[in-house]
Design goal:
The protein is α/β, with parallel strands linked by helices and 250 residues long. It has two domains: 64 residues, no CATH class; 161 residues, Metalloproteases ("zincins"), catalytic domain (Zincin-like, 2-Layer Sandwich), CATH 3.30.2010. The protein is built from seven helices and ten strands. The strands form three sheets. Strands 4-5-7-6 form a four-stranded mixed β-sheet, covered by helices on one side. Strands 1-3-2 form a three-stranded mixed β-sheet. Strand 9 and strand 10 form a beta hairpin. Helix 3 packs across helix 4. The radius of gyration is 21 Å and the shape is globular.
Length: 250
């Protein structure tokens, strides 16, 4: 495809992507993952001839997302070692947990919290993947308990109302805000400092007013958090603090 507005009529090379039809999809959706790269998910019968122009409009965002996940690709190699954790630190909520594994005859894996900050993983603990899944579910529950009320508090203090909250395990986003003012929080926020979590909340709450990164959006962010530039810089490097057992999934 030739972009006539580019210098010397240079070819505008689009990033590689795959197309997947989904019966559940109602609209076109772009997904970036380590396993599949850029994936364009479309409803059945979607006119695929318009996809290249959509990719071109989103090219800057897509290239940034691909660059971010490429930093993690070496960790997902088949030879990557990812043992079960014996200690879990959650700086966002200032909690530290010592993890113990107790093998029982139960086929499933369950987790019990003890009052002395001990986390007991019990059941078929020889199944490492199932243990990691149970731990990620526990992390998700902690996020529901702590992050959701925290977001509501920041919303009230900043006078930026939102709709509802979802907790997910996104691979390339700390959080997101939909056009319906639904804010999706990544449970991995628990692994970063509380000041960065607070900034993520402010950032997404400002998107309830401006669904873009325009100058008006950043002016609003600056109004709510004057130190946002430094915090935004720190946030870009904060992915490195996420434990491997959280990132590496079967």
């Amino acid at each position: 495809m030739v972009n006539l507005n580019s210098p010397a009529n240079e070819l505008n090379i689009l990033p590689n992507y795959t197309i997947r039809e989904s019966q559940k999809a109602k609209n076109l959706h772009l997904k970036v993952s380590i396993e599949k790269g850029i994936e364009v998910i479309v409803p059945k019968g979607f006119d695929q001839s318009c996809i290249p122009s959509i990719i071109e409009k989103k090219q800057v965002w897509l290239e940034a997302a691909v660059k971010k996940i490429e930093q993690w690709r070496p960790l997902f190699a088949p030879t990557a070692s990812c043992p079960l954790p014996d200690f879990i630190a959650l700086p966002a909520i200032k909690e530290d947990w010592v993890v113990e594994y107790h093998h029982t005859s139960a086929s499933k894996v369950a987790i019990t919290e003890k009052s002395d900050s001990q986390l007991i993983v019990h059941g078929n603990v020889n199944d490492v993947d199932t243990c990691k899944l149970a731990l990620r579910r526990w992390i998700s529950q902690k996020a529901h308990i702590h992050l959701v009320p925290w977001l509501k508090e920041v919303s009230q203090l900043s006078h930026l109302p939102f709709g509802k909250t979802l907790v997910k395990g996104q691979k390339t986003r700390w959080a997101s805000c939909s056009g319906y003012k639904t804010i999706s929080l990544n449970y991995k926020l628990l692994f970063i400092p509380d000041r960065l979590v607070h900034y993520v909340f402010i950032h997404e709450l400002c998107h309830t007013v401006h669904m873009n990164h325009s100058s008006k959006f950043w002016d609003l962010v600056n109004e709510k958090e004057a130190n946002y530039k430094q915090l935004d810089h720190e946030l870009r490097e904060a992915w490195r603090t996420i434990p491997l057992w959280v990132e590496l999934q079967s």
